UniProtKB/TrEMBL annotation:
Entry similarity comment: Belongs to the protein kinase superfamily. STE Ser/Thr protein kinase family. STE20 subfamily.
Xref: InterPro entries: Kinase-like_dom_sf (IPR011009), PAK3-like (IPR051931), Prot_kinase_dom (IPR000719)
Occurrences of domain Protein kinase (ranges): 12-256
Chain intervals for the UniProt region annotation (Disordered): 260-291, 303-322
UniProt KW keywords: ATP-binding, Kinase, Membrane, Nucleotide-binding, Transferase, Transmembrane, Transmembrane helix
Protein name from the UniProt record: Protein kinase
Length: 374
């Protein structure tokens, strides 16, 4: 029996259960070798002993290897498949999400446009699975994951353990024929039907008469073709994707659920305790009172205004019983003062030098005049 803290395969530590699928409990685990979080599922094996049990283990190992071959944005990536005692474990990427079945139970139906956008992503993933040479076999709302970031992930790819819900099994498979790509088309149609109607098209047992769609809207015709009882008359998966794309009319095909899954918000950083000693002092306020207010005539334009009238309009209006406060213009930048002189001499010495120079010029002029007359 698996429990928290168990080490699987010598490296994967089981931390906590995060869901229950057809094949058993899904665990949040930690890869102690690569230091990453993963999801792990113990694959369902029928109870038995001897050759039957060994054949079941071999089949589960092969299903895990097949699932690991799928590389698609809308398919859960399988990293590894591990034998552990009598069990077989799948090691998968961890995506914060909830199953479509849980989502519909909590938030109700999808709109036809939302279901079509969902079907496009699932159909593309199923096309990649079929191109790899096998089928999903167990497509239903419980194997569709709606990620917290709005993405869609298909899980349990090619895994037969636990068995699919009969409400989503194609009629030919229910009669004993092997699963095929047309069977996946039927299962996709039944899943999308449930997303807009709230109930499966042929009842929970898959044996009731078809219930006419009431909320499918523009999706009705496409669903009717996908749910045909004869697999040879159903559209291919590629044709299904094209039909769903036509319904969205080229709009954004990313599935956006009507209500984001409820995830706890990240914890807020702790607030440091108040310490008055570390509180900066407020800057001192400027002095107030009539003696500090500049009184300027309102007939003179204030700096920054084009006219005295504009200055007048900017004057504050005093409340009744209070004296109006004159407008105090901002300080006007003064032109830089020139140095007293280029020799850094005081102003008085410069004046004396200037006077002496003038007297010298006068004396020189007198001497020149006397020499000229002589």
């Amino acid at each position: 029996m698996s429990s928290e803290g168990t080490i699987v395969g010598g490296r994967f530590r089981l931390d906590q259960p995060i869901g229950r699928g057809r094949a058993g409990i899904v665990w949040l685990a930690f890869d102690t070798r690569l230091f990453r979080t993963v999801a792990m599922k113990r694959m369902y094996l029928p109870v038995g002993a001897g050759d039957r049990a060994e054949q079941a283990r071999a089949a589960a190992m092969q299903e895990g290897k097949d699932a690991a071959r799928i590389e698609h944005a809308s398919a859960i990536k399988v990293f590894d498949v591990l034998p552990e005692g009598q069990d077989v474990w799948l090691v998968m990427e961890y995506i914060p999400s909830r199953s479509m079945a849980t989502f519909l139970a909590e938030h109700g139906r999808l709109t036809p446009d939302q279901a079509a956008a969902l079907g496009i992503q699932l159909g593309n993933a199923l096309t990649a699975i079929h191109a790899a040479g096998f089928v999903h076999r167990t497509l239903e709302p419980g194997t569709v994951l709606l990620a917290d970031d709005g993405g869609v992930k298909l899980t349990d790819i090619g895994i037969s353990g636990g068995g699919p819900s009969p409400a989503y099994v194609a009629p030919e498979v229910a009669r004993g024929l092997p699963p095929s790509p047309p069977a996946d088309v039927f299962s996709l149609g039944a899943t999308l039907y449930t997303s807009v109607e709230g109930v499966p098209p042929f009842g929970d047992d898959g044996q009731s008469s078809e219930r006419p769609a009431q909320n499918a809207g523009v999706l009705t015709a496409a669903l009717r073709k996908m749910l045909r009882s004869d697999p040879t008359t159903r559209p291919t998966m590629a044709d299904t994707v094209r039909a769903l794309s036509a319904i969205t009319e080229g709009r954004e095909t990313a599935f956006i659920p009507p209500t984001a899954p409820g995830m706890p918000p990240p914890p807020a950083p702790p607030t440091p305790p108040f310490n008055p000693a570390h509180t900066p002092a407020a800057p001192p306020l400027p002095p107030s009172g009539p003696q500090y207010q500049q009184q300027i005539p309102l007939t003179t334009p204030a700096p920054g205004f084009s006219s005295a009238e504009e200055t007048q309009r900017m004057q504050p209006v005093a409340a009744p019983g209070q004296q109006a406060t004159q407008y105090i213009p901002p300080p006007v930048a003064q032109p830089p003062k020139q140095a007293a002189d280029e020799w850094n001499l005081p102003v008085s010495k410069k004046t004396l030098i200037t006077v002496a120079a003038i007297l010298a010029a006068v004396l020189v002029g007198i001497l020149v005049s006397e020499l000229f007359f002589v």
